[in-house]
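sorry for the late reply, my laptop died twice this morning and i had to redo everyting from scratch. anyway the thing you sent over, i finally got around to it. pasting the sequence first so we're on the same page, its 102 residues, then the predicted structure underneath. double check i copied it right bc i was rushing
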Amino acid sequence: MARTLAGGNMVAGVTWDDVHAMNASHAREHDGVAKAAALEIPRRNSTAAAAAIRVLSDDELDRSPPISLNADAPLTSQFMLEDHAVRHSCHHLAAIRGALKP
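ok and here's the structure:
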């Protein structure tokens, strides 16, 4: 979605129910994974996300088309990345660290 916003295009028709369904599907797909895999998945995904963010220009990060997830409010791709992708990863990292504590 951030790439769509960065391209100056609105995100239409995506609802929070869609996001929740995607998250539930992802959780089912990775249910019961071994500890090593559980630690590797966020490492791999974070590396890919960081690479995708680094190629965006300041102009692309500043673009703010409407997004259906937020009642068609205009959001910058930078906000979408910071509030969703980066914050979401930090949330998962905190949960993983909590689970690894003795």
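The first strand starts at residue 66 and ends at 67.
thats about all i looked at so far, will dig more tmrw
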